[in-house]
Amino acid sequence: MSIEHLHVDCEMKADDTEGAAAGTVIGYGSVFHNVDLGKDVVLPGAFAGTAVRKVRMLWQHDPRQPIGVWDALEEDAKGLKLKGRLALGTRLGAEAYELLKMGALDGLSIGFSMGPKDFEYDAKTDIRRIKRVKLMEVSLVTFPMNPRATTTRVKSATSKRDLEQSLRDAGLSASEAKYVAGLTQLPAVAPDGAPEAPRVTPDDGNEAAVQAASLLAALRNLNTAAFGRA
Fold first, then answer.
1. Residues 2-30: pLDDT tens digits?
2. What Rg value do the Cα atoms of the chain yield, rounded?
């Protein structure tokens, strides 16, 4: 089972109303009828039957970094409304809460899986209308995924390790990122640590990575459109 991520312009804030428990956060994890960067649209009813106890609160979609718990979720006319509590006894939870109160952090993003009958694909508009999902987690995120920013990170990488991490951040698996990074020719580094004059520029050297990553994304989209993901 693969997990997809849906990044939209959501709303999240710390709940400082009287009587609210410390660390309480509220917001929308998904907004209906909004076309996201991947040309996905979530329809009302997509989260029907979701049990909040099975939905994890993560930091930046990292399963190794749970950051709190979701106490309540419901669909309203706008989208998926959530209420939860950050783990203030942990460093990451406390930091996230402070950033929320300052307004420096305000993004939510969902992680989910679905089957071939859970969406409709319109080939003319290249839009996928999502009717039903199995919600796995809702993450606090700094930025929604931006394809242009991802490409910039890939092109600006100056080591194979940095390039692999950028490709992982773009959604590739560890093995895919390692394979794509192996296609590139990055600037050499002299023994004293100073970069040697490369035969190609970093942008030219990483162009293969950008093209390979784009190809993998296109193949994934084609597979999803034809068969769905389960």
1. 677 777 666 677 776 666 677 888 888 88
2. 20
